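Students often ask why we bother encoding 3D structure as a string. The short answer is that it lets us treat folding as translation between two languages. Here is a chain of 207 residues written in the first language.
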Amino acid sequence: MSTAKTQKGRILRLTQLSVLVALLLIFGFTSIGYIKIGVIEITLNIIPVAIGAIVLGPAAGAVCGTVFGLTSFWQAVSGMSAFGAMLVNVSPVLTFILCFVPRILEGWLTGLIFKSLSKVCKSNSVPCAVSGLCCPLLNTLLFVGGFILLFGQTDVFASLYGQSAATNIVAFFAWFVGLNGAVEAIAGFVIATAVSKAVLTANKRLA
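And here it is in the second language, the structure alphabet:
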């Protein structure tokens, strides 16, 4: 009975991870997952990443983040992303790093945050809400921070810096984060939190 139950749990987890990966691929290879405002892109891909990290754990969050990074890099090299294409023209290698590292970290860290909060909270409500909010915030902060670190001396950065009318790097960071972070944070908090909580409840019933 125990072996059958363990096998059932593994199949359930694999199925759920497969669904999330499929959603990420659909979001990434179509225009569904992106809201584009000029060269600024607000992504909804953080939602499946957050759900994967919360429901399936840090490793699954990292896997979802890797798929997110893959689709981001493909959008950049294919020209679907105007911003990504500009980065590729500067350095394909640095663009690859920027697309993958922040996304892998956001999934992994979101999973760790949920796991840590679950140990001190009686219900999943607070851990789901906090983690659902942290995932998009981590995505924005890590990506923008990585962009400044890797491309801060390039013409792409200079162009965006000029558009921001910022007087220092802190003001630019706030401008860039503000454009992306608000919509992504709301989407992550509302959708990822609600779906994750529902799936966790369903998983307990199926266990």
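Translate back mentally: The first strand starts at residue 34 and ends at 37. Keep this in mind for the problem set.
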